[in-house]
Structures are given as C-alpha cells and as structure tokens.
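worker-03 picked up job from queue 'complexes'. Input manifest follows; two sequence lines, order preserved.
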Amino acid sequence: MDTEIRKALQKSLGKCIKKIRLDKGLKQNEVARRCGFYKSNYNSIELGLRNVSLINIYKIAFALEEPISSFFDDVEFSQFLEHYNDK
Amino acid sequence: MDTEIRKALQKSLGKCIKKIRLDKGLKQNEVARRCGFYKSNYNSIELGLRNVSLINIYKIAFALEEPISSFFDDVEFSQFLEHYNDK
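worker-03 finished. Artifact:
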C-alpha cells in the first residue's frame, strides 16, 4: 500500500473522530484524558498522522461513547477500494 | 484498559473477520497473500492475538472487499462499553 493512500486512510479516521467529538461538544483535552493519551498524541490522531492501533481506536470509541463502525464512512471506503485496486 | 478486555476486543475483531472470510469462501492463504502478510500472522489476527493497526485493518478490508464498519459489532460494542465503564 503506497504512502499516499495510507495518509488518506489515517486522515479519514481522524476526520470522523473529530466530527463526532465536536458534535458531542467535547474538547480534545477531555477526550485525551479519558483515553489516557497526551493531548498532542490525541491531536495527531485527529490530524491523521498516526497509524493508530485497534486498542487505541477502542479507547477513543469508549471515550466518545460511540461505536467504532461510526468512525468509518462506507461510501468513502468504496472510493478507497477503487483507488487501491487501480494501483 | 486491562488485559482481559484488550484480549476480548482483539478476539471480537478476529471473529468478525473470520466470519466474513468464510462467508466469501476464501482461504486464509488467499487473504494473507492479498494483504501481503505471512499466513501465520494473518491467522494470529483471526485468533485475536494481535493489536492490529489501522492500516492493516484496511488491508484486510480491501482483501475481503468489505467495509471496516462490518468488522465491528455495535451490539457487542455496547456490552464492551458497559464492562469498560464498570472497571
């Protein structure tokens, strides 16, 4: 998998997480605290700079009280898959 | 997050992935090849022994041509969240 698509996938997750956090009126500080992350680390996840692990995705989901399925956009997935298969 | 719940979360993902693979009539060898993983590594993911990264979850989703949201069971998530909050 090339770097371009990796970055896009990480950004996609970060964008979804950020949207959910803002919809719930939560600050990064608060979510980071609930997850047990440094705020800078949490911020870098929202910015799509990290290849976050399953367990850390769950920590965020628990902190936001939102199922992980809502972190992934199925329409965007189809576009990624198409792009991926074209390579 | 304690070890018990970590293991349960990893197992939950592995179980979902395995079910989708079997429903599609695919062998572990084939999915591992598509992902670029050794078969033993792929098998350990299905067994829930790995804290797999976002990018590797995507590789599996692309290999199975199935959106990531289908890897996570929302009902089970609620149970995990309840268990997690009890701790």
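worker-03 released lock.
The interface with chain A takes residues 1, 6, 9-10, 13, 51-55, 57-59, 61-62, 65, 67-70, 72, 74, 77-78, 80-81, 84-85 of chain B (CB under 8 Å).
Chain B has a mean pLDDT of 93.
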